[in-house]
Fold each of these.
Amino acid sequence: MAMLGKHGKAKRAAENLAAVTRWKLVPEWVEPWRARLSEWNKRTRIWRRRLLLFLAVVGPGVITSNVDNDAGGISVYSQAGAMYGYALLWSLIPMTIALYVTEEMCARMGVVTGKGLSDLIREEFGFRPTFFIILAGLVVDMGNVAAEFAGVAASMQIFGISKYISVPIAALAVWFLVMGGTSRVVEKIFLAACVLYLSYVASAILAKPDWLLAAKSTVIPSMQFNGGYLLMLTALIGTTIAPWQFFYLQAGFVEKRVARRQYKQARADVMVGSISCMAIVFFIIVCTAATLHVSGHLVINDASEAAQSLVPLAGKWAGSLFAFGLLNASLFAASILPLSTAHVICEGMGFEAGMDHKFNDAPIFYSLYTGMILVGAAVILIPNAPLQKILVFSQVGNGIWLPVVLVFMLLLVNRRDLMGDQVNTSTFNLIAWITVIGVIALTFVLVYVTLFHSGSVPGLSP
Amino acid sequence: MLHATDLLGGEAYDRDGHFVGHITELFIEPADQPNRVARALLGRGKYLPLVARYDNFAFVAPGVLRLNVEEKQLEHYQPNEGWLAMRKDLLDQQIIDTNGRKVVRVNDIDLSENRTNGTVELRVTQVDVGLTGAARRLLHGVASPELVRSLARKLPTRVILWEFVNLIEPDPLRRVKLRITPQKLERMHPADLADIMEKLSPVERQSIVASVDEETAAEALAELDKRLTTQIVETMDPERAADILEEMDPDQAADVLAGLTPESSREVLREMPGEDAREVRELLKFDENSAGGMMNTDFIYVGEKSTRDEVVAWIREKDVNLEQLDTVFLIDEDAIYSGAVPVGRLLFAPAGERMESLKTEPLLSVLPDADQKEVFEIFDKYNLHSLAVVNEAGHPMGAIEVDDVVTRLRNR
């Protein structure tokens, strides 16, 4: 007769006896520390529980906001710091607000309706609008993906590795991550990548900036009314708010099956994301402002040039950390952008989507992802690729796509039949509409200037 | 064959050839006929829209509808919840394909034309969820009809017959008016229904659970992702939740309750009849990852001295889930667990054979506090389908089934 449970219990009893005797062998002075630890455990229980609840939900907000700081974004921020020093820092607080307001609406829609943004647009506005949004998304994001791989190539070049080695390896790594990973594993990796952005903080500290001046410039607005300044301002805002973020964010909360009662945690996730994103921007601008601007090196064309120029001014570490930050950002964005686009297309057209599916269950989703990476990487590997033209093109495309998506979002989030009592309050609506109109206006300016006056701003010229 | 895309937006003319309005909507009246296009809504810009009935349709072609009455004979439009609107309720919405057992989005609707004494009868035949419908929606009005048709011919078709279409309607009153019945959903395998429910929004999931009977709801919820089950049960009335949990096996009900907040769990338990609530409460005491947390307290045990025929007759009388029955457990005169008899042996044993001679060797059991890893090992080593769980005195408390083991192993 085999009563296995009993055997296990007897074994455990014997082990417990050994443990008790072992404890007695531990010196007396350990005891007060143990007591303090259990006291601490008891007192922080509620706090720890809240943290765990938050950690269960955190992810989409932090990831989406941080991917904002991709290769293109870092280039713009470096240029802003180099050319205008600390003078543009005041725009960060309004930008954080704009980012939070728009992202929060998507988070709310995702949690309340349980559907992605593409799904909602299809159900409420019909087939054709959805199709055009998807087409615009595909085209613009392809350009962005190419830009990310360009960032990988440029940052690795600083470390002496040719783009013909770094780009294919990066493409393979990014491809394997999504093909093989589940959404939870990939999310954890992305969150780790977010932490690596702290290299910019280190870089900024090494640049020995004037912290007081930087702080003052962040809080006190200072407008200069010359063309270049205004354009740089517009470009800053343009790179911060991109349509693909909204689709990815909402799909993230839907895939995580965040419940309505966890909404507060989701909102906290978005808030942490927006603030951390803008904090990194602050450090990037401060870094180049303290070094390049101060030394008169006002004009740089992109982020890798910034990293290289940092070396003589702030030391090898500062430059390396900056370049590493660029590599991290580019890889990160190169994985997320195609993912977001694949989601948008599949949701809108009614195909299966999501990393948790096997290839055969969601063939179109995975094929789209693979295709975008292949095209993005291939474009960069072509010798003398017209990279600037591609960047400009995707910036313009973004500018055209963004207003449409923002307006759709605002219309959807105010629909009582969709959102129940979670529609926008009038105050929120006021802030949201002002933000949206402001962003749209600035984006139009950016598009107009990029197309017709591109000579006036370095880095934006074709 | 006509399509909804061909007609919506088209022009309607009355008997005398005067333009009446644009076809903005087509309605089906499920209470009357489940697939006939009963009404057409004609929009007239700033004037109030008019409604034409099915017996007013004289001629139909892509983009054109000719009526057999004068404009002044048409009624004014009054919104009616009992009418199913093709553009608002069907196109671009998600529906359940009860044949293919999945959730799909409607791209277009196919209609059949039937001429009967002067009028044209339009009926919905099937729903297009594939590329042909998508292409038609995209190019309608932009490219010439011939181009659209030839393109549509080249693309692969995916359609669902109207009789397999199950609409998703969260409002229970409207469900009644639209004659949306849950029978097809109730006939589906619970795992397929759970799969479908995972694709829907929380409100739609709630409406499915509300519309099917308790047994189907219980089976589907047992197969559903634990997070979703928790969300659904928390949003429900405690009485309805209790009704559904009663239909589940006690261990499944305990799993569901374990996921709720303590207050919600208590509310639901209060609504359950004493016997069931007690059983579930007992199970809730065990750790999730122990044998006690895996076991089912609903199992068959008979005296070892009973004969094969007595046992078979007894099982016939009891309300037993025959699909899940694979082992009959034995107890001796002191109610101590004494063996397991596979149903296969029971089937072929001669009538008077005593149960104790049919039991398998060796005699296996676990205590409720045994770790689930031990349980997995035993199942694997002895190739078991069921394993008895006994308390310290040796009395049987429950049984662990192999499907629970498989589910747990997959979720690790």
Amino acid sequence: MTNPRAAITSKQILLLPWLVLIVALTLTWLVWDHERQSARKELHSQFDFALRDTVSRLEQRVAAYEQMLRGMQSLLATTPLTNRTAIHDYVETLQLDANFSGIRVIGIVEKVSAQARAAHVAAMRRQGLADYTIYPDSQDETLAPIIQREPDVGQDQAVLGFDPWTEPVRRLAMEKARDSGLPSISGKVRLVVDHETEASPGFIMYLPIFAHGQPRDSVAQRRVNIIGWVYAAFHMRDFMASLYGKQSPGLALSIFDDVVPTAEALMYRSPDEAAAAEPAMENTMSANEYMVVAGHTWTVSLSTQQAFETLYGRDAASVIAVTGICLSLSLALLVWQMVTGRVRALRLAAEMTEELRHMAQHDPLTKLPNRALFSDRLNQELTRAQRHGGKFALIFLDLDHFKPINDNFGHAVGDGLLQQMAQRLQASIRASDTVGRIGGDEFVVLVAELTEANAALALAEKIRMAARQPFIVDGNELHVSCSLGVAVYPDNGSDEITLTKSADEAMYRAKDAGRNSVVSASNTTR
Amino acid sequence: MIIRISIFLLIMLGNINLANAVTPDCSRPYTLALHDHGLLYSAETDAGIDKDVADELIRRSGCKVIVSLMPRARIWQLIESGALDFSLSGIRNAERDKFAAFAWYFSNKYYLLVRKDSGIRNLADFTRNDRLQLGVIRGFRYSENANQMVDRLQAENRLSMAGGLAPLYQTLMLNRIQGMIIEPFDYPTLEEKRIRDLTAIIEFNDPAVPHGLIMSKKSLALSEQEKWRVLVNGMRTDGTMRRIFEKYFTPDLAAAMVDF
């Protein structure tokens, strides 16, 4: 692990799980975002379809009613406007059943000039309508009273004679129908037949009737030759009820007259929406479509409710997010385990190797370098001293009277003493010096880079004094001494063998001289 | 002499054959639908370019053609289904080519009409500002860049759909939409001045788009389509088409639209 290249590689390898996590999370995010967008797109297109469908159903229904009125127009191309019986029979034959339930009434409006007013009223009264009169009073040159309405149910007789030309909303539609020759529907009105104050909003569809055989190709010709209108009056609520097809669930529909969706312009509101006390949704979609029906604009306002999203929405995005994050984390963890498993094994092997090496080179009891390591250090020092012409010393040390301690106090106490001795030796020397244990109670000190031989003797003396201090082992106060022999390179030997021999001999001479003393190899007399 | 007479007769016969070749088959009545759209056709006045073109085309064909008024989206539906034979002023795209054939008679560019007070100077200004709504007529397609803009805004829910031009102008005046896509004939006769005062025009950088007679492929055989195309081309070459457009536009603009 000291190889720098290997160190960088292992660092890079440790980044791998993070890289995997980032890539996996990014992928999750991409998939999640794509799903979210496509879900929103789908919901959006469902909504758009619903709006288009709603408008289309309204258009078709209006077209069906238009068609029915065109039938009336055709009838009046063959018979006078005042042929009450024919019109009554025709409407009866139409069998306006539930399919046409939107129609409140079908009627005929006759265009009467102001001058002909009296004659018109008189003629109507002759037909048995004793109370007939044109109302409200109008100063307009043109009068347009309702002269017939079907189905005729008696109590609505009062409606006859009403002049819709006096009412701006109706008049606008009548003018449009006259000028274009096409069906035209009015804005929001309250039908005349509705007596209740809270009447349902209604609208009226007008179709112009032109004089037989007269040209009607231009606006001017149509204005001259119009003789009346056929109309159908609708309740918006009933009109909506008669639509074909089914409104998509979960959608609130409102229809407003013209282009501004205000409360006054409201024509219809779906019952769903009235009951919608739901909290506002996050993703509510709403849109207005300005549809043109028979020359008139309605604003169709559609917005989604909770049910719509429940029905068409997808919830895969959150599933993807959760699953993706879990998988990303698991994957990163797995990669981390694989990568660091190798690194951790290598580290363990290195530690064990180091420990083995330590064990091979040190004395297990005192942890001091053993003979082999000491020999290494000695040779290094020897090489160094030979190269630079320096000095160093070797001190051999043997504890005096150690065997009786083992015998009297046991090996444990003896071992404790050796350990303490080793510590005292370590404390006595310099960091550059080496202490080794080479056997039972024998130690050896390598005094490196010596300037003068006396320094080695002084150190030996210091060690001897340190050994004299009592040892406390397991509560026993023990007294020992030691004999030391000092050999100096190059004075007392030029290699490991001769130096060792010199130091050893000096040490034995110290023992012979009565122990507890230091003997230099140079001093052969002492 | 005999040779000359023979040649004369041959030429006469050839002409007759040619005349027969271009007369459409009138054995059944046809249907043609107009849509209410500015100067093309106004239901309020029952007049317009399309109406004039239709009248002339019907006159030249000698066929009975029932003309009606419908929303544009419905017209395309019925052309596709074959229930409707003709409509006018249509433009092609890949989808429409599957069910409709065309006989071109004029060409024009599309423009973005915006409110002056919206501060829009170019197309990107409009697309960028997500508060701006574009009004479009359902069923309409435009030139390429205009289509791209419409499709993008559609995805952003920024379109207001309408069944015709009239509500679009109304909502533009009320500032409920801030822009709409128009063609030269889209100005309503009514309130034209007020609209011009309030709005500015931005060009789409597209070439002019040809418009033509729409023919339903489902209801008209290829040979019949060709006969109607010959009729339309006849109206162009003899100046009839130009005269119709000059009723509604300045001579310069009419020429620019008809000669392409």
Amino acid sequence: MTTRLNINGQQKTVAADAGTPLLYVLRNDLALNGAKFGCGLGQCGACTVIVDGAPVFSCVTPVGALAGRAVRTVESLGTAERPGRLQAAFIKHQAAQCGYCIAGMLMRAQALLERNPHPDEQEIRAYMEANLCRCGTHHRILAAIQEVARGGRQ
Amino acid sequence: MSGVDPGRRALLRHGALLVGFTMLPGLARAEFNAMGLPTVVDARLPGSLKTAPLLDAWIQVAPDGKVTVCSGKVELGTGVRTALIQVAVEQLELQPGAITFIGGDTARTPNEGYTAGSHTIADSGTALLNASAQVAALLRSGAAAQWQVDVGTVWLEAGRARGPGGRSMHYGLAVKGLDARGLHRAASVAAPLRAPGAYRVIGKPVARVDIPAKVTGGAAYVQDLRLPGMLHARVVRPPRIGARLLGVDTAAVRRLPGVRNVVHDGNYLAVLADDEWRAVTAMRALTLAARWEGGTPLPRPDQIHATLQALPAENIVILQRGTVGAARGPAVASRYTKQYVLHGSIGPSCSVAQLSGGVLTVWTHTQGVYPLRAALAELVGMPLDQVRCIHTEGSGCYGQNGADDVAADAAILACAMPGVPVRVQLMRDQENLWEPYAPAMFSTVRATLDGNGRIADWEYDVWSGSHNERPGNAGKLVPAWLRARPIAPSPSLPMPQPEGGGDRNALPLYDIPNARVVNHFLAVTPLRTSAMRSLGAHLNIMAIESTIDQLAVLAHADPVRFRLDHLRASPRAQAVITRAAAMFGWKAGAATLPLRGRGFGFAQYKNLMGFVAIAVEVLFDPDRNTVRILRVACAADCGQLVNPDGARNQLEGGIIQSASWTLQEQLQYGTAGIASTDWSTYPILRFSQVPDRIDVALIDQPGKPFLGVAEAAQGPMAAALTNALAQATGVRRRDLPLLAAR
């Protein structure tokens, strides 16, 4: 059986059952590395992507629920050669250690900044609560998001 | 991708004949020490050149001038790849992006044992610093010989040797001016090292080479490896350690869509499918189809320390100085405990393996490709030189997580499907239930003041299971226990001082005339345990620093002043303490608001590596039993700095991770088994709980040895939090985690 999806602005048809979690389709059928398997339970946020503007745990979201909805992954924000604004802020602040959680962090932060372009630190912390980092890179992640929230001003 | 470069292997074999470099099957695991290191070839050489002295084991120059730098240390997410590149290019006069860097590949890099213990920059960085300086000198000599000019007139610049009259040649041509050995020669004891004041790359905050891919979805991890024709595997582990598989009907699972094979060998179960989600689905069906019985009962968690104390111990006196027990002044006597803690990698462990052309290639995020290779070769019954382990990054591990176990799964399953690449990733509950935990441990301390308010004597005893269950033999790997012909783990051994295991940092650095410290090593304990960032230092430093604060109270002294007065022989210790206190605005005798507490913690990691002092201020909420960390001031001296921003990142991360361990982390389990299967049953700090503010100051030591930094903050942060909470609550808590319901 096949499923039609809108991924990063492109229509894709994948040979996956409706019950397959989006994460596996992104990583395997579409070879997109950004979203990561962390818990499979929606508890850690490593798999976070944006669906119609909202952050979603792709590990617990079946592709059958995504008809007509726009899915965005970290790959949509930019490339290593031409990083997007938030990605550039993460690079500037060296906001990663192992980095396994970082693509999910970026997508949750991106969703916040699209809803509220100028969140303060408390709003950022509250919004990012759903995503775990084990390396303890939180302050750098906050600094990178705040830089974009302040319009590039430190 | 799977073949071993025959030229490289021949080169290394040749090297082995000359100097004992480690590729011959005869030089096997038995000759590795506890850190997975081969025998020392020349003890006079700096860093890891001691065990791998050939210059071209580290730095290779291709005929076209391209430079490849090899390290046996691997990137675990700490930024060492970038730091090692910085060291290597300094005197080779290359840009960091101009070299190819290989870290941890048994076909290509030296054996530097495990990437652990904050050793990477001290071992591999020191080797590369000296090797690159010697290679740079050889390149100048080679060019000078061909130009027939004095070597003093030749310099290196941007990848070319340059000489009088505008002459230049690339490094590949310069090497041709050397004798037939080229760079295939043993390092010298003395290297023409650049003066630290002239460094152009070392000591600079060079941006990490791996971060752009990690923030843009580039292929950065072993989880991202996709080989042609690759199958996805999932394992089914027993529900409890020691459980036996009574029966399993695999026929129905074999008929599921996409399933290519089911492997059933004793208590070992796995399924391979053509698609990852199909593998997960089949794993669930296989889980339901399996019937288990028995299992090793676990102790009651509320009695774990009594259980540990009753076990047979190897009692090792690690310090006996003067006479303890004779002093009669004010005394402190206490007991400190720690529960089992999870590594808690965000990404469950993963590996890819392929048996092709008679060679088993394993892509793995292990901390030690060579020791793992030896264990895998034993596991699958292949000669050492037909197994190749290639380090490929995974999620941060902070010690031995499931990385080596899942590499064993991949090896077993690849051997069951010759020619086919097999990718295995553990599920969250499998990672949590089967990883080797940081050991539960406890210690007792008794210390006495003399009539002048100085410490007169000190007795410290620490009980802990093993902090080093790394391979080792194949029996250190979980899959080896489960197969029909199991392999037992090799005996657990204490890690000796000066680095220590459970007794790491059990020796107080303070001036104390009479002291006795005993390590009670427990070779067999109820749960599987192994190395986690700082080992026993987390509890030992917390216990020592808690005692120091209590003694300061008895001596009517400010705790920072009291520390300085007992560290007169260590100006570097005094410097970080003074700096952290100044950053924090520490004032002796300053009054605090109710429920607020300030605390201080200090240690030199292992008493021989990085110095870290931390001051914190906390606000305690008695109604919710929570702590808000208002601010953290940290000063660190990790010797000659290589990448100051990388060092800061590690210290900030260590502070937050240690805060999580210290305040709230403990493995949940009952007599029936492990209950911490996910993040709801093993909560770690989230954004709302991390400190409001962290300031880090680095004290550079130009020209002094690299000391490492990645593990140095764990103990001091635990100590500072414990001392701050004691002030905030008025009651000293001595059992970790500090906020556990009791």
